[in-house]
Amino acid sequence: MSDLKARISLTAQGLFLSEGVEGVTMRRIAEGVGVSATAIYRHFRDKEEILEEIIDAGLASLSSYLRPALEAKDPFQRLKGLIDAYLRFGLEQPRYFDLAFLVPGRVMHLPEELEHHSRATFKLAVQQVALCMEAGIFRKEDPIETTVYLWSTAHGLVMLQRMNRLGDDKEKFSRLYKTTIERAIRGLREKA
Amino acid sequence: MSDLKARISLTAQGLFLSEGVEGVTMRRIAEGVGVSATAIYRHFRDKEEILEEIIDAGLASLSSYLRPALEAKDPFQRLKGLIDAYLRFGLEQPRYFDLAFLVPGRVMHLPEELEHHSRATFKLAVQQVALCMEAGIFRKEDPIETTVYLWSTAHGLVMLQRMNRLGDDKEKFSRLYKTTIERAIRGLREKA
DNA sequence: TTACCAGCGTTTACGCTGTTAACGAAACAG
DNA sequence: CTGTTTCGTTAACAGCGTAAACGCTGGTAA
Asked: Closest-CA residue in chain A for B99?
């Protein structure tokens, strides 16, 4: 009934997630809501703004994947949990991942708030890495560079899978990503 | 004058590379060539086919980055050269990289020939990895998984940079990617 | 030479897109 | 009761990818 804006969001989210960013038109969203196409413009500046809202939701979902990992006891478990969660997000929420990270060709410009949140999350990861170094689990080197390295590996792996460059056997990919995490971390370890 | 098809290709390539995939329209290409929009259809099935040609060119360019690396003497140098070339390609040909890898949301379906070429290149990398293992430089494990891991790291790093998640200081990124390669390889080494 | 025909570019037009403008009904403020 | 704001409507516009029909132009067959 009421709160048309929320209903537009919801319908748009459904369409974007089920059909990807192309093929979703203002008129189809409007039709789904049961309203005229131009009514949408009372609640959103333009199509881009709707898309941004969905991306926000995607990043929130990513956050909800990452959060539990931080509750582990030691920093090494937390870090492994973060990487694992990132990969699971890519596997289980491919559409969100696409929307958030497969920007159609232009540089993504996150709204201030999300930008901030994103950097905060990154910093959290850097912290775990630094702690691992202090604890003598990782060799001591630049924790930021190290974190970027881990992030790259995780992000790249999901990316290659999203581009179905790795075959479509989910089982196999699941194993692949376990061994990849291992390999990625191995090079950081302090020699015993 | 003649060979309109080539001129369309060239103009389209210029537009796609200078403005990215969006904002390039059939009418603008046609205008650039000095011909009516529908004339293009005598030479290309549709817009997608033009884009595919440009992507082909992009992958050819990637190939030209990778090829010299294979002329090094030992497999370890060849492998490092391959990774380095991949990263340089991402840095120096960002628009090609976007076109080839930032598929707007749908799974990329390469034409047969390119698919084959791409897999062949991957196999070549796997070979170097396997040789490194035989030579006792890398510890012996699944060379395919190992190659995917290296590829992921390189691809992810470029990806994050393309999404300007890593700042825009080219100098810094240049250093970052050197240390990332090192870190990625470190974990593969046979303990001395 | 004449008749034809295929190749290639043109103009016109269709259905789709995102978006703006003008309008009207309801809800609310003084 | 009146004036204004809110929120939806319909109509319309410019731009998109593309199809269809037309006409020129050069080469081949009779």
From this structure: A105
